[in-house]
Specification:
52 strands; glycoprotein; TIM Barrel; endoplasmic reticulum; 3 domains; Glyco_hydro_31_N_dom; ten-stranded antiparallel sheet; Immunoglobulin-like; disordered N terminus; 959 residues; binds 2-acetamido-2-deoxy-beta-D-glucopyranose; carbohydrate binding; alpha+beta; ten-stranded mixed sheet; 18% helix; Gal_mutarotase_sf_dom
């Protein structure tokens, strides 16, 4: 939900207006005046000015930072030293640590000595922590910090340099220049990432405010140093200016991806103006942006300051671990070929410039060389995607709001009547008693347990909204406990902070406090959240946090959190601290009942993937928003948070039938597949749509359900190695330059399924780009497409989802339509086999109970399917554990009921049966084979009926 009104329009009338249900939707575009431009943000402007000054000086510019060689020590994988920043009147000491990690990543940390020692004074009697914020890693980093045992100083370093060899086979090297300070990261002798190459390193050190006599000018422009006002709110800045900035250059790289969340293309654009470029830097300052705009570097609800640079056959990356407001400028420069060196081609360098308002410089550098290695190493640090409960990958039906418990039951019954599968129905905030979370509105939801029990009959779930703002109302038990225990966020004067949100006057729970986690935990127990059952899960919204009357619709930066950190220091991790608390709470709502939590979060930071799914917030029912959802979801995936989706149908406004239909056909490719709608929109549950659209939408949802085994396998892969669930073209074909900027088609896991949803009005074809010279088959009729490095036009009438299968794959499916995914648990499988040029195919399947953590103790099935020399076989990829035998027993009766082989060898025309050999069986058996001849451009195919081999068993089918 979450569709906040801009502060200026927030009035007491608001709730009245909602009650009357006649809220007028004003413009369709974002209110730019509610959000800062770079020029309106003091530190952004200062860092850009600093960059402009440097580039104006050109060769004459020299960065004022030096590494003092006398301080350099290298021990046990850590290089330490002191950077000296020389200003007109002082030398500022900045401790530096460069750690070389076993994973091949390197970490560069720069802090400020005076701040570390607490040797500064705060203005306005502030009680804020004197250190630079150094606890982001507590919320973000979960591993991967083991230092390399083999990293060594390079004895052959040039004078004025310290060089460290590290990484796999010592193929990486950090070349650290002392003066001016800079680092070149090399792989195989070639430089891939450069720090301070352009001399934009800038750490605004602490200094006292000097009150000058009237008329005396300060040496520098101090207008944004001590105080900043925006939208009627003044930030008191008790520590003065304290930003950190650094330029990071990727020589020879012309694409950079990542740094979500922005409604923009996958390949990030330049940001310093010029045709087709942005004028503003990409901003990361988690915000509730009402009616956000497309093709924009504006900030949105979440932030992951992780970037990949990609060129043919090489991917590298950086992760800027800083929780404060952050902006990134991107400029690409082309170095012309030297006219004397024949054959040399021009090359593009991508120069990025990162700056954050506060905190330390804490940067991880990844040298790849492939996108998969980057995903793995980054995932080791921030954690891999949570393997969700199986229901969570089905279809979610949401709207603001289902108005009564009877309404919920009726929607549930209608889905059954029209035979449309779904797994989860959602309640937005109106289920609560007067917007008090952990309560139910007594008149409209008198029987919440009856409602959940009804849903449970078809293994369906309920998700309800719980937000971090707590209504300020006497007698509300959550509010009373919050205050009694001192668990609320405070303002700069130390009083409980009060702002406006859905309930009106509210306080905010401060999840940075470890004691809050156990309290939050207790609130979710069945005996405290009365009326909640075990099939209820949680949606954490508005956790940027959204504050209707706050600056930029969020909290004042000088608010105070646990640990005496200013809101400025922690803003971007604020959202995940709530999710973290909710995750702990859902783990064990009743003693002994341990289930995987399901949480949807709107605000996020790196690490959120361990705990939650995300959606792209309050989009609009337009074709543009439908199109934008694909690069946004893909970008989240490569940035380590692949359990992502957009509101199907568009949140604001009413989609027409064509748009809604196409949106479902696209939405089935979001890892998180949920329809949602604003309170002012017309009802649009799929069964309400007139024919033929209803049937087309139902078929799309059924296609999702048919492929759930492939989806769950892709989720599993993401959960063990960080590979995105849906993958963009460059990720799958990192050597094919033609595909690097393509962000409107996607691959599902490693299945070879290539989808290109239709996102344009009235389109009835889709041009799918194919990178290699394998055959690709239309998923539905096996029409063959072949030809590398070009686009192929595929028919896409309204009823059709453009979808190809690459040759060489084995895809597990379940073909029997059911009401929910839970009811498909014991259904048999179909395997679809497409052969590659060598007549071989590969695939895999992961399956477990979809609910508990028993998979961590061997309670799962993981098979590899292989087709080679006319034999289809199933081998075990799993490792045995204490729960293996028990799980296999429950799956004993689950078999493969059908094998479809597309484009089989011609000789199969003569065959009428195959031989089935199951491990442990005394004899082999025969199963019938039916051959279907090629027709026109459609490939032939053969079907093995009822081989009935066990899904958890080792077997062979001989053709
Ligand atoms: C940029 O240069 C101008 C003119 O020399 C100076 O006044 C200003 O302080 C500089 N800005 C920064 C951020 O270095
Ligand atoms: C939640 O935060 C705590 C404290 O930082 C941490 O120990 C725990 O691992 C986090 N939980 C998850 C699921 O990341």
């Amino acid at each position: 939900m979450a569709r906040s009104r801009p502060a200026s329009r927030w009035t007491l009338l608001f709730s009245l207006v909602v009650l009357l249900g006649c809220m007028v939707i004003p413009g369709w575009t974002v209110k730019h005046e509610n959000f800062k431009t770079c020029a309106q943000s003091g530190f952004c402007r200062r860092n850009r000015d600093f960059a402009d000054n440097a580039s104006a000086k050109g060769e004459a510019w020299s960065s004022p930072y030096e590494l003092d060689p006398a301080t350099v020590h290298f021990k046990d994988g850590h290089l330490t030293g002191v950077l000296i920043k020389t200003t007109a009147n002082e030398k500022v000491l900045l401790p530096l640590t460069v750690s070389f990690l076993e994973s091949g990543a390197a970490r560069v940390v720069v802090d400020e000595e005076k701040r570390l020692k607490g040797d500064i004074e705060l203005r306005h009697d502030s009680k804020a922590n004197k250190k630079r914020y150094d606890e982001a890693e507590k919320w973000v980093i979960v591993g991967g910090l083991e230092v390399s045992k083999s990293a060594t100083l390079n004895a052959q370093a040039e004078t004025g340099f310290t060089q460290v060899l590290y990484g796999p086979g010592d193929k990486f090297q950090a070349v650290i220049r002392h003066a001016p300070f800079g680092v070149d990261f090399q792989r195989d002798g070639q430089t891939h990432v450069q720090l301070n190459h352009q001399g934009l390193l800038n750490l605004e050190h602490w200094r006292p405010k000097v009150d000058r006599p009237e008329g005396e000018e300060a040496g520098e422009d101090e207008s944004t140093w001590w105080e900043e006002t925006f939208g009627g709110n003044t930030d008191s800045k008790p520590r003065g200016p304290e930003s950190v900035g650094l330029d990071i250059t990727f020589p020879g790289y012309d694409h950079v991806f990542g740094i979500p969340e922005h409604a923009d293309s996958l390949s990030l654009k330049e940001t310093r103006g010029g045709s087709g470029n942005h004028k503003e830097p990409y901003r990361m300052y988690n915000s509730d942006v009402f009616e956000y705009e497309l093709n924009s570097p504006m900030t949105l609800y979440g932030a992951i300051p992780f970037m990949q640079a990609h060129r043919k056959s090489s991917t590298v990356g950086v992760f800027w671990l800083n929780a404060a407001e952050t902006w990134v400028d991107i400029v690409k420069s082309t170095t012309s070929p030297n006219p004397l060196s024949l054959g040399a081609s021009s090359k593009t360098n991508t120069q990025t410039h990162w700056f954050s308002e506060a905190g330390r410089i804490d940067l991880f550098v990844f040298l790849g060389p492939s996108p998969k290695e980057i995903s793995k190493t980054y995932g080791e640090l921030t954690g891999y995607t949570q393997l969700p409960q199986h229901f969570a990958i089905g279809y979610h039906q949401c709207r603001w709001n289902y108005v009564t418990d009877e309404d919920v039951k009726e929607v549930d019954a209608k889905f059954d009547k029209y035979q449309i599968p779904y797994d989860v129905i959602w309640l937005d905030l109106e289920y609560t008693d007067d917007r008090k979370y952990f309560t139910w509105e007594p008149l409209t939801f008198p029987n919440p347990t009856g409602m959940q029990e009804k849903l449970d009959e078809s293994e369906r779930k309920l998700v309800v909204l719980i937000d971090p703002h707590i209504k300020k109302e006497e007698g509300y038990f959550v509010q009373e406990e919050l205050n009694k225990k001192n668990f609320a966020v405070r303002n700069k004067d130390g009083d409980v902070y009060e702002g406006w949100c859905w309930p009106g006057a509210s306080n905010w729970v401060d999840c940075f406090n470890p004691a809050v986690i156990s309290w939050w935990n207790s609130l979710h127990k069945y005996d405290r959240f009365k009326g909640s059952l075990s099939n209820l899960f949680i949606w954490n919204d508005m956790n940027e946090p959204s504050v209707f009357n706050g600056p930029e619709t969020t909290m004042p930066k000088d608010n105070m959190h646990y640990g005496d950190w200013e809101h400025r220091d922690i803003h971007n991790v604020n959202g995940i601290t709530l999710v973290n608390a909710t995750y702990q709470a859902l783990l064990e709502r009743k003693k002994g009942e341990v289930r995987r939590p399901f949480i949807l979060t709107r605000s996020y930071y790196a690490g959120a993937q361990r705990m939650a799914a995300m959606w792209t917030g309050d989009n609009q029912a337009t074709w543009g928003h439908l199109a934008a959802s694909l690069p946004m979801v893909l970008n989240n995936g490569i940035s380590g948070f692949p359990f992502a989706g957009a509101d199907v149908g568009g949140f604001f406004h009413n989609p027409d039938k064509d748009l809604l239909t196409r949106w479902y056909q696209a939405g089935i490719w979001y890892p998180f597949f949920r329809a949602h709608a604003h309170i002012d929109t017309r009802r649009r549950e799929p069964y309400l749509i007139s024919e033929p659209h209803r049937t087309i939408i139902s078929q799309a949802i059924r296609l999702r359900y048919q492929l759930l085994p492939a989806w769950y396998t892709a989720f599993h892969e993401a959960s063990v190695n960080g590979i995105p669930i849906v993958r963009p073209q460059y990720y799958v074909y990192p050597d094919d330059e033609e595909g690097f900027a393509i962000d409107d088609q996607l691959y599902l896991g490693a299945t070879g399924l290539l989808a290109k949803p239709v996102v344009a009005e009235n389109a009835n074809t889709a041009d799918i780009y194919i990178s290699d010279d394998e055959k690709y088959y239309d998923y539905f009729d096996f029409t063959v497409y072949q030809g590398a490095g070009k686009r192929h036009t595929v028919p896409a009438p309204q009823e059709k989802v453009p979808l190809l299968i690459q040759g060489g794959h084995i895809i597990p499916r379940k073909d029997r339509p059911r009401r929910s995914s839970g009811l498909m648990r014991w259904d048999p499988y179909t395997l679809v086999v497409t052969l590659d040029k060598n007549g071989e195919a590969d695939g895999s399947l992961y399956v477990d109970d979809g609910e508990t953590f028993n998979y961590e103790r061997g309670g799962y099935i993981h098979r590899r399917f292989h087709f080679r020399e006319s034999v289809l076989s199933s081998e075990d990829l799993g490792a045995k554990g204490p729960k293996t035998a028990e799980y296999l027993k429950t799956m004993d009766g689950v078999t493969v009921e059908r094998v479809v082989i597309v484009d089989p060898p011609k000789e199969w025309r003569e065959k009428s049966s195959v031989t089935v050999v199951e491990d442990g069986a005394k004899t082999s058996s025969a199963a019938p084979l039916e051959y279907y001849k090629q027709q026109g451009k459609k490939a032939s195919y053969a079907v093995v009926k009822k081989p009935n081999v066990g899904i958890g068993k080792t077997w062979r089918i001989e053709f």
